[in-house]
From TrEMBL:
The keyword Ribosomal protein applies. Residues 5-51 form the Large ribosomal subunit protein bL12 oligomerization domain. Homodimer. Part of the ribosomal stalk of the 50S ribosomal subunit. Forms a multimeric L10(L12)X complex, where L10 forms an elongated spine to which 2 to 4 L12 dimers bind in a sequential fashion. Binds GTP-bound translation factors. InterPro entries: Ribosomal_bL12, Ribosomal_bL12_C, Ribosomal_bL12_C/ClpS-like, Ribosomal_bL12_oligo, Ribosomal_bL12_oligo_N_sf. GO terms for biological process: translation. Residues 57-123 form the Large ribosomal subunit protein bL12 C-terminal domain. One of its GO terms (molecular function) is mRNA binding. Forms part of the ribosomal stalk which helps the ribosome interact with GTP-bound translation factors. Is thus essential for accurate translation. This is Large ribosomal subunit protein bL12.
Length: 123
């Protein structure tokens, strides 16, 4: 007779923390995987492909905040836009400021805009 997921969950719920740790270690040894790697990989898609890490990001300004002038200056610095275009992008929030940025560039630009007072998302 096979155990259901609910049966297994109920059995684990009745265990002490040390028993759960031992159970996890035993499962890692039996199946040749680590729990941390399984969590990072997510659900298996037929066991073939692991999830690819995103390499390009879009910088989206969701709100300009109280210091709009500082945000416009930051947008100009990040994008190279003129004053009128940068002001239009900030006034039109939410707006995509820059597309297909590397992770490092996107994080730096996000930090710069947040420091200026804006609310920003990376997509």
């Amino acid at each position: 007779m096979a155990l259901s997921k609910d049966d297994i969950i109920n059995a684990v719920a009745d265990m002490s923390v040390m028993e759960v740790v031992e159970l996890i270690e035993a499962m890692e040894e039996k199946f040749g995987v680590s729990a941390a790697a399984a969590v990072m990989a997510g659900p298996a898609g037929g066991g073939e492909a692991a999830a690819e890490e995103q390499t390009e990001f879009d910088l989206v300004l969701t709100a300009a905040g109280d210091k709009k002038v500082n945000v416009i200056k930051a947008v100009r610095e990040i994008t190279g836009l003129g004053l009128k275009e940068a002001k239009g992008a900030v006034d039109g929030a939410p707006a995509t400021i820059k597309e297909a940025m590397s992770k490092d560039d996107a994080e730096a630009a996000k930090a710069k805009l947040e420091e200026a007072g804006a609310t920003v998302e990376l997509k």
